[in-house]
Amino acid sequence: MLPFILRRLAQAVLVMLVVGMGAFWLFQYVGDPVSNLVGQDATAAQRAQLHAELGLDKPVPVQFARFVGHALAGDFGISLRQGREVSALIAERLPATLELAVVAAFISVAAGVPLGVYAALRRRRWDAKAVMAVSLLGVSLPTFLVGIVLIEVFSVLLGWLPSFGRGATVQMGGWSTGLLTVDGWRHVLLPAVTLAIYQLALLMRLVRAEMLEALRSDYVKFARARGLPDRVVHFGHALRNALMPVLTISGLQLGSLIAFSVITETVFAWPGMGSLFIQAVQFPDVPVMAAYLCFIALVFVVINLVVDLLYAIVDPRLRPHGARTRGAP
Amino acid sequence: MTGPLLEVRELRVDFPTRHGALRALDGVSFDIAAGEILGIVGESGAGKSLTGAAIIGLLEPPGRVSGGQVLLEGQRIDDLPREAMRLVRGRRIGAIFQDPLTSLNPLHTIGHQLVETLRTHLPLDAARARERAVELLRQAGLPAPEARLAQYPHEFSGGMRQRVVIALALAAEPRLIIADEPTTALDVAVQAQIIRLLRGVTQAHGASVMLITHDMGVIAETCDRVAVMYAGRIVEIGPVDEVIHRPAHPYTAGLMAAVPTLDGELARLAQIAGALPDLDAIPPGCAFHPRCPKASPRCTEERPELALVQRTRAACWWPIVEGMPG
Amino acid sequence: MTLRAPSTPERAAASPPRGPRWKRWWASDLRHEFVRSPTALIAAAIALLCVIGALLAPWLAPHDPSDLAHLDLADSHLPPAWMADGRATYPLGTDDQGRDMLSALLHGLRISLMVGLSSVALSVAIGVTTGLVAGFAGGVVDAALMRLSDVMLSFPPILIALLIDGVGRTIFPHARDLLAFGVLVLALTLTEWVRYARTVRGSTLVERHKDYVQAARLVGMRPWRLLRRHVLPNVLGPVLVLATIQVGQAIVTEATLSFLGIGVPPTTPSLGTLIRIGNDFLYAGEWWITVFPAAALVLVALSVNLLGDWLRDALNPRLR
């Protein structure tokens, strides 16, 4: 187990380095690195001083090392657009995005898995087919359109739910959460559903496909040949095996949700990292883009690692076991 | 017990396609007596596995039973509702498939799979079920069976897995075991052991076996009687010794001649010219006639039924009769 | 042999008729299932309609939406023709600048389809070639490709597209229209080519080890010819399925980028741009500026996805 973990960690570090190089290139060479660091309002003298300090005339590896050093300390310079430290901006907006992503993930799993199982077990019934048709719609609809429609229906026409912002938040240490107030929940509902729909549809289709695959397997056949009741065959055997790949995908979905939040946050004016990134691209605000790139990469790498570990725990074939019983047939 | 354990009468299996129905089994009839081991032998695609699947009601759609009857201990089982058929499976008829690795769920310990099978059919509590599971594994020849319960299928070798599969099939004490190519996926060295185990264990339980295989050696060593299948029909059926040494049907004779022997001369293996017909192109009359050296006009028109020829029954208009030329 | 349907019915049923290729395809199972499947037919019909509408936009559209000289502000904010205040010359109404919605829709559809199709075509070309090379060359090239594709596949395309777009804007702050288009298509292509590369690489690896390939190499057959004649036909099926689905995704991604204001330049609005414009006027009750482009977008994406879905099921031998 340990060599496995170490290997995956090494891979993770490698990926982060590569991404770091990309971010470094962004930071230093796309646009003006001095502005990236001190903002646009610095005086000429300050700039000259920083130019020397930065060692922009030093060889590239040295500059890269500096960049990495700063990055690890959380210093990504100053936002060109807002004139504030990028790290502060990100820290401010992180809770909003994370909460949105977690709620959306919960919705998509809680609805997607049961629907997918149902669609697989009752595949000939009309409602199962209808569910699959709706899932195709879910995959085809652009997220922003879903958001617009939801706002139009639930906010404008029915007036049930608010259409922008986070609502009342509670400050817990450095974290501002909207999940402790009813108002916060009312605000997070529409964006979370919008964000969840694509992933929900995807998950549903995946679960159905995996279930169907499992139901055709030899062990299911043998289970039936042993006279096991349908319930045991479907859930104890087929579903149990079908959920394995679903586990991986669900984990990756969390990362995907965080990434897709750029659209949802824009439509709902949700003050998260996604809308920050969009504004950075529109401006264009290079330090923020570089920082966001690193952050997203980190999120994905961590999630991949966790999912791999989970897989190894859940699948007995991947666990190291004691005395293997080969030999006497 | 009076009467045969299993009776199959004129079983037909069709596969509807957009070109019309393909008849995969065409009037298959045979009996299996209590405690008997019947071999079903034939080339790949002859319909052996389909026969087994049809009997236990596990035909894969779109295949369906389109005619005939299957009787177990005198009662029809081919027209049972789903739930009733499920209770027959495992409890009265057990099945073993070819690949023991894929037959076992990799995510469950074999103890779990044994216990769930036992408790589905027998009124046992968890502790008693475990005891029986250990006993079954011991009978199947697995050393240290208590420790095995907590292990997963991938921790076993191929032969041991098949032993586990046999134990699972026998768990609820069925009267009949359908074994579909039980040794094909195993090493040659292991095959003999598994076959001996199968024979021993079923005799100990008093169960009959329907042994489906393409391996004549296994048939010769294990079975009491054997049925030879060709193109979805049985062409010859009789005691193993008779069929092998005094085959009456030209196809059987061809099969026997094609089996290499250690004491034979080193010459080319005899082949039967041609190949199994496609299901949508089964010849009229006797299905074997295009490849048969003795074919006559009658063979192209009338389909022969199984008839007693000396000591076996063969479906042929010109069966090979000992002591007569041709 | 397990208790499964024998291979013979499948083998038997496929006695293909002789004759030229098109004739064989006509009698093939694929075409047969196609005409018998209502979803496939409807989806294909809708997709075809959209393509034709888009292709013929300059001739079909009653007005030219990019012709700024002919826009009359007095004609702005008009509802569709069947409502009160509507006018027959503007069948689907006008937007805030007096642009005819029908014309804008057709042209927008054209832009969306152009971007989507060209990015997919480019992705397929790059991806298939890379996959062939990687699969055949093996070794370091292959390993590098796999690592790269692993990383790229785990990032959602929208992010990559956004990043490339942002970088493009910084490098070329005064990008002219063509350049902006180029950046957009590039962004979409870079996110999509990886899938094709992987699929093709897999197939190439499988084929490469087959005996006839080894024999051909011994005889001195040139690798490209080998690849083209033997590997390519086997790979076309999955590539086709992927491409069909990707067109839908590309169109949606482009619409999203345009909606966010960083896609196509505003002078050549795509469906996404139109929806963005319309969004501002939804609350004023002028729904037609949003609804029609949105409907067109959904129709295109849905029909293409349906087709791709159906194609994948039809080409999957195990689901027959």
Describe this structure in words.
The complex is a heterotrimer of chains A (329), B (326) and C (320). Chain A has 329 residues and is mostly helical. Chain A has helices at residues 2-29, 33-38, 44-54, 60-72, 86-121, 126-140, 143-157, 182-215, 218-225, 230-267, 273-282, 286-314, and strands at residues 170-172, 175-177. Chain A has twelve helices and two strands. A two-stranded antiparallel sheet of chain A has the order 1-2. In chain A, helix 5 runs antiparallel to helix 6 (126-140). Chain A is globular and about 85 Å long. The termini of chain B are far apart. The mean pLDDT of chain B is 85. Chain B is built from twelve helices and twelve strands. Chain C has 320 residues and is an all-alpha fold. Chain C has helices at residues 7-13, 21-27, 29-36, 38-55, 57-60, 101-137, 139-154, 157-171, 177-208, 211-219, 223-259, 271-282, 288-315. Chains in contact: A-B, A-C, B-C. At the A-C interface, helix 1, helix 6, helix 7, helix 9 and helix 10 of A face helix 8, helix 11, helix 12 and helix 13 of C.
User: If strands are numbered along the chain, what order do they take across the biggest sheet of chain A?
Assistant: 1-2
Residue runs with pLDDT of under 50 for 5 or more positions of chain A: 322-329
Q: Identify the overall geometry of chain C.
A: elongated
Order of helices and strands of chain A: HHHHHHHEEHHHHH
Largest sheet of chain A: 2 strands, antiparallel
CA radius of gyration of chain C = 24 Å
Q: Write down the secondary-structure element order of chain C.
A: HHHHHHHHHHHHH
Q: Which structural category do the helix and sheet elements of chain A fall into? A: mainly alpha
Largest sheet features of chain C: none
Distance from first to last alpha carbon of chain A: 28 Å
Find the biggest chain interface: A-C, 41 and 39 residues
* Helix proportion range of chain A: over 70%
